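In this supplementary section we document a worked example of the pipeline. Step one takes a protein sequence of length 171 as its only input; no multiple sequence alignment statistics are reported here. Step two produces a three-dimensional model, which step three serialises into structure tokens for compact storage. The input and output of this example are shown verbatim.
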Amino acid sequence: MDFIGIPSPGQQSLKPGSRTRGGWLAPALAGAAAFWLANLAISATPVAAGYRSALAIPYVPMLVEAAAGGLVLSSALASLIVHYPAKIPGSGPLTKAVLLGAAALVILTIGLELPSKLSSGIDDPAHWLLVATVFNVVRVLALAVTVGLVMGAGGQERNRHRGRTTRETKK
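The serialised model returned by step three reads:
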């Protein structure tokens, strides 16, 4: 068997693969795209223009950094859900993703945003911390919901006629 539980050619296994509901790559890419699109929508607002101006953030590098940050965050979130589903509270991939997204938001706010705003020397750092936190809530929520929905879509599909899942109809 190879490292993900798929039998090698000519080898049979009765154990299911360790990757249930697909892998983490498609949800991670979808979550990163949702994060970046939410960032793009936010960046078109006057509040975001004021934020960029106050902190001297150039527009194009900010978009590139948002793409990279969204990819890192969504990859971590999707990977945790795929590899440790029983250790994450929640009834399905959507609730697990939103819970992990909320935890990531708290960690990022306390670990990155708070120190950067307090040490930046800008006027009214509390105001800009609040603005950045609201932006991050929108972006991380978009990412988490997208990851959860994509992971849930890869699982059980409902039979249109009877409301049963495909797993239930194969029994």
